[in-house]
Amino acid sequence: MPAPIDGRPAAMELTAEILLFLAGAGFIAGIIDAMAGGGGMITLPALLASGFPPLAAVGTNKLQSTIGTGGAAYAFARGGHMDMRRYWPPVAAAFAGSALGAIAVQRVSPAFLAALIPILLVAISLYFLLSPPASEADRHSRLGIFGLSLLIGAVGFYDGFFGPGTGTFYTTIFLTLGGLGLLRATAQTKAANFASNVSGLAVMIGGGHVVWIAGLVMAAANFIGAQIGSHLAMRFGGRLIRPLLILMSLALTAKMVMDPKNPIHLYLFGA
Asked: Do the domain assignments include residue 1?
């Protein structure tokens, strides 16, 4: 595969085997992402393993996840679990934050985030492991819409900057601070995730960091998987979503920590 020039994907030779591999990754990620978030930890490593330069992997991943989360958001909205009249400000904040993050990732090294994200994910996992089972009923919100929007916007920035685990962050904020029940928190997550994906994708397209054939193949598979995952989440609710939130948080943490370039890996295991 030709080397990238200035961080942009060169002409990439995509074989049928690579496309089939990426389609499988997109399908599995769509199911997981619709229920608990974190599908990017499957698709992004799959793209990198297929020889994509980092920025091309991020941009292409954004294309497939945009279509996948769009399908999941539509399924939740059609099921009556989404309240855009009340929660449009956090969704708008996710859109704006992701655009800024996608601009930043093309100019700043993401290394400083590599040490922070695993710590946050461990904290999220501990919360879900130690807290009482989340109710499907809404509770009193700990934050107003403005505070909620600021936090969702910050996660949107991370989504545009890097991405994997974004759905888990969104769901946790809507659940623990927004006062939503688990199913409605998952539904609002899809709306915010779709918004941040759309804006991040637009910036990546402008920067020339999207490999369209691979992204569209993955997107088609992701869309199918997202439909299956959305219906599973609506049918089984917290019984299925809660364990997946814990699993995806811990799995993403392990994936990041085991990266030899991660500062935490270097601290624990040496160069």
From this structure: no
pLDDT greater than 80 at residue 118: no
Kindly report, residue by residue over 65-109, the tens digit of the pLDDT: 888 788 888 888 888 888 888 889 999 999 999 999 999 988 876
> What distance in Å separates the CA atoms of residue 129 and residue 131, rounded to the nearest whole number?
6
Residue 23 scores a pLDDT above 90: yes
Specify if 249 maps to a domain: yes
Is residue 223 in some structural domain? yes
Domain, as residue range, for 237: 16-269
| Host H or E run for residue 31 | helix 16-36
C-alpha distances in Å from residue 104, one per residue of 36, 54, 158, 162: 27, 14, 10, 10
Residues 6+ apart with CB under 8 A from 240: 35, 232, 233
CA distances from 95 to 18, 25, 134, 191 (A): 31, 25, 28, 10
Could you give the number of structural domains in the chain? 1
Phi and psi at residue 142, to the nearest 5°: -85, -15
Beta partners for residue 8, in sequence order? 5
Residue 34: both structure tokens together? 């619709």
Q: Determine, yes or no, domain membership for 177.
A: yes
Instruction: Compute the distance between CA of residue 260 and CA of residue 135 in angstroms, rounded to an integer.
Output: 39
pTM exceeding 0.70: yes
